[in-house]
Structures are given as C-alpha cells and as structure tokens.
Amino acid sequence: MSSPSYPLVLDLDGRRVVVVGGGPVAARRAMSLITAGALVEVIAPWVCEELALMVADSTLTWHAREYAVGDISGAWLVHTATGDLATDDAVAAEAEGLRMWCVRADNASRSAAWTPAVARSADGILVAVSGGRDPGRSRAIRDAVAAALDTGELPVRATRTRRREGPGTVHLVGGGPGDEGLITVRGRRLLAFADVVVVDRLAPRGVLEHLSRDVEVIDCGKTPGHHQLTQDQINDVLVDRALRGLDVVRLKGGDPFVLGRGGEEVLACHAAGVRVEVVPGVTSAVSVPAAAGIPVTHRGVASSFALISAHDGIEPILDAAREHSPTTTLVLLMGVRLLRDSAAALVAAGRGLDTPAAIIERGWSPRQRTTIGTLGTIADLAEARGVESPAVVVVGEVVTLREQLGIFGTEIE
C-alpha cells in the first residue's frame, strides 16, 4: 500500500525553482516548470542538448558546476535528477532540513513529492494523475483522460457564470448522417462547451443526452406536437443567443454546406456582427449509400457523381441528366415525394428504363432499409413498400455493386 499523499496544484509563476542535473529527465522537468512560469535554475557540470537550447534562449539560468550545499536555499521547490544516488540523497536531505519539497527522479519511494502525469485542455482544464508511484500507469490514465477531454466526453463545460466581453460564437456543426458515432471530434467537443444547442430533426440526437442540464436545447425540426421554425426564425435565434454572450451550436444532419442552408445562417450572423465557425460533417449523400453497400463512384463503373436536391422540383434533375454522361451517378436528396416524376424525367432526358436505382431509408439507423429497382420500376416498388423520408435515392450502375460488396446484412426488410 502506498503512503498517504495530498494532491496540490502550485502557482510557480515568478518563483525560483532549482533543478539539479543536466540530462534529459532534468530537461523535461525544467521545461514543465518554465511552462508554469517558474524562474528555473539548473545546477550541473554539463547539460544535454535540450537544456543547452533553453540556456541559449535565456529561458533558464545554468550554473555549470557540481551541486553544493546551500544551492537550493531560498528556492520554493527543488527537483533532483542527477543519476547519482549520493548527490540526489544530499539534495533531498538539504531540502528536508529547509522544509522544502524535493522531487526525486531516481527513486519515487524515497521522494517527498512527486510530479503527476498531466493532461491539459486549451481552455484551462488541468487533470493531474498519480498512479501510486507507477509512472507508466499514470501516463496511461493521463492519455485516456486527455483523449476524453479532446472529444468532449467529459463534462468540461464551465458551471460558474462566465463574464464575456461582446457576443458569443455560433458554431455550425455537421452531425453526420444520424449515428452519433459519426460526428467529428471537433463537433463533440463544441457540444460539450455549448450554452445553447439549436438542433435539426436529422441531426444525431443521441448526443443531446450527454449535455449538461442547464444547456438550452432548441428543437427546430418537425416532431409530433412541435411546429418547425422557419429559416428566418432560426437565424434570429442564433443571433439573439450569441448577442447575449452565449456560445451556440447549430447542430445539423450531414454537412452544414451540403443542402443544409448553412450559408444563409453564416450571412445572418455576419450581418449582426456575430463570429461563426463551420465544422464539416459527413454528408448523407455519400455515407448513406455507402451504408447500403453502394459506392457513388467505382473504377470502371462511375468516375463521378452529381448531387441534386429533388425537393426543388424536376428542373434540377433534368438539368443534371442533360449535363452529365449516363455513367455519372445521380444522388437525389429529399427525393421521395417526387420520386415518380423524377424517374420519368430522367427517362425523358435519355436515361434508360433499365437504369439501376436504389432508395435507402433512414441510413445509419437500426431501421435502415434499401429498395432496389430500375427507373422503370422504382416508383411502384417504393409505393408498395411504403417508402418514407428521410431517404437517399441513387441512380446509376453503381447500384449493381451492392450484392458484390455485401455490407448490408443488418438492414430491415
């Protein structure tokens, strides 16, 4: 059993700290102390390259000689890392007599103080880990904590009222195709710090369960009993909350700039003097077909694809069919309502009735379902199966690759 210890965070800014030793271990200790603002003095007859660079940069003072009694007098803290047991014993003994904390690098069991493994975040969070005098265990736990800090998996949002000068920031975060595991690390981290989250219906809503209770969540999607906000109303909400000094995450499905009206929200924020950050997301135009085993491009089959908003009527679909060769894959978003008209328009524009077509409903969810047909049959098949939005429609020879790739075993029938 390890002896009792008392964890403490020290303010060493402007305070004298002595490091005895000139090797790589002493260099690491010196760098950490300099980062903490300490006035570092190194006592050693020679120094390694890392310490020599710090001396050349005048970031520390080097006394080029052996340690002598009295060297640590007046210091706030001392580290000894000479590699020589007698010297380290002498430094530790003098520190003990002066009632000064001494950290020994050679033998943790004989040290009066220990340096923990430290994880820091850019916004000032510091987590120190002591592994019971086992440095390897300390580092392993530290690395796991640092990863959780970076991804926002820990409750990192400040709980005390923050005083902010000026407006907050609006972050347009692409949440991906719906599975919360497909949101970016940057997006998860911003959610962990958000004061307000404005969320779409197709965003990965599971991430909302991890938010602090005092985070304001504004649902702007169509759900039972809830009226969808207009785009102007959404813009007003983003600007209003940011002007109150709050950090806002606008959580969208897919990518903010792929048929997500993110550009309109950026313009509204800029007009109000609100800073905006755009965090890209995995677009459903590519990821949902992939979930069903359909690549939108494949060597020897299709070298390009065209993305079309079928919600805007038949003309964009006709334009795409005329502008692109028959080998170009067509991907239609929001295409269920006008599916029959869209298929007929593509045939009229020159695509054959036997052109393969697929509809993938609720991509990346447990209820994902794919309907396979041709331009001549897909509308009837969709009607018979009761196909509903959200869904992605794929038209082109790449649909025939689905059976060969065989990565769709978990779909419902």
UniProtKB/TrEMBL annotation:
GO BP term (any one): cobalamin biosynthetic process
Recorded catalytic activity of this chain's protein: precorrin-2 + NAD(+) = sirohydrochlorin + NADH + 2 H(+)
Annotated SUPFAM superfamilies: NAD(P)-binding Rossmann-fold domains (SSF51735), Tetrapyrrole methylase (SSF53790)
Gene Ontology MF: a single term: precorrin-2 dehydrogenase activity
Record-linked Pfam families: NAD_binding_7, TP_methylase
InterPro entries linked to this entry: 4pyrrol_Mease, 4pyrrol_Methylase_sf, 4pyrrole_Mease_sub1, 4pyrrole_Mease_sub2, CobA/CysG_C, NAD(P)-bd_dom_sf, Siro_Cobalamin_biosynth, Sirohaem_synth
Domain Tetrapyrrole methylase, chain residue ranges per copy: 169-378
Pathway annotation from the record: Porphyrin-containing compound metabolism; siroheme biosynthesis; sirohydrochlorin from precorrin-2: step 1/1
Record key words, sorted: Cobalamin biosynthesis, Lyase, Methyltransferase, Multifunctional enzyme, NAD, Oxidoreductase, Porphyrin biosynthesis, S-adenosyl-L-methionine, Transferase
PANTHER family, A to Z: S-ADENOSYL-L-METHIONINE-DEPENDENT UROPORPHYRINOGEN III METHYLTRANSFERASE, CHLOROPLASTIC, SIROHEME SYNTHASE-RELATED
Record's protein name: Unannotated protein
Species: freshwater metagenome
